[in-house]
Amino acid sequence: MPTYFDTIAMSFENVKIDDDGIDTIQFLQAADALSQMFSLFNSTAFSVVQNDINGNIRKLRERYEATGDKSRTIELLVQNELAEKKHNATQGLLWLNRGLRFTYTGLKHSYDHPDTELSTSFTTAYGATLSKFHNFITRGIFSVAMKACPYRAALLKSLGEPQDRVLTQLDEWLAGLDKLTQRIDKFYAEGNYGKGL
């Protein structure tokens, strides 16, 4: 029986990185697949995250479609957009990466602590990632949403069988996601691209 990871068009660990950076199309395909994963949770808990991720993917895709080869990597996309004194996709990538980092942190915590429920893992992840960027109202929305997380066992079952294969694939997927989000964070920090966004 195919697992979730067998069915997606692109997995984070397979996204190409060359001298110019992270392949834009492959990165967006992998982010799309992550958004689809939230649908497997059968929970409204992640709808706010899923909507945010989808909106930011759309900003990046629109920029790519408008500029083509000039935006073939994520890094080139940001640099050529800012050179035009625009920042819509640059801001979109910043927030997309924050959402991806939140997801990575929550799932990694769950992977490393199999006796801990998802609500705890994602509440911990929220405090470590997105919370500092949100106002009081948004933090309250997330606090309620994280309490509505499905059980860990239900999530793993929704990702497919056998479980040992799912866990191996999840570990590889998480490693790829970690590598990409850290690279984007470093790119923004070194270029000071996120200032004022």
TrEMBL record:
List the InterPro entries. Answer: GLTP_sf (IPR036497), Glycolipid_transfer_prot_dom (IPR014830)
> Key word Transport present in the record?
yes
| Stretches assigned to the Glycolipid transfer protein domain | 22-161
Q: Which Pfam families match?
A: GLTP
Keywords, sorted A to Z: Transport
* Top-level taxonomic group: Eukaryota
State any single GO MF term.
ceramide 1-phosphate binding
- Respond yes or no to whether keyword Transport is given for this record: yes
Cellular component annotations (GO), alphabetically ordered: cytosol; membrane
PANTHER family noted in UniProt:
GLYCOLIPID TRANSFER PROTEIN-RELATED (PTHR10219), PLECKSTRIN HOMOLOGY DOMAIN-CONTAINING FAMILY A MEMBER 8 (PTHR10219:SF25)
What's the protein name?
Answer: Glycolipid transfer protein
Species, as recorded? Calocera viscosa (strain TUFC12733)
Instruction: Give the taxonomic lineage as stored in the record.
Output: Eukaryota, Fungi, Dikarya, Basidiomycota, Agaricomycotina
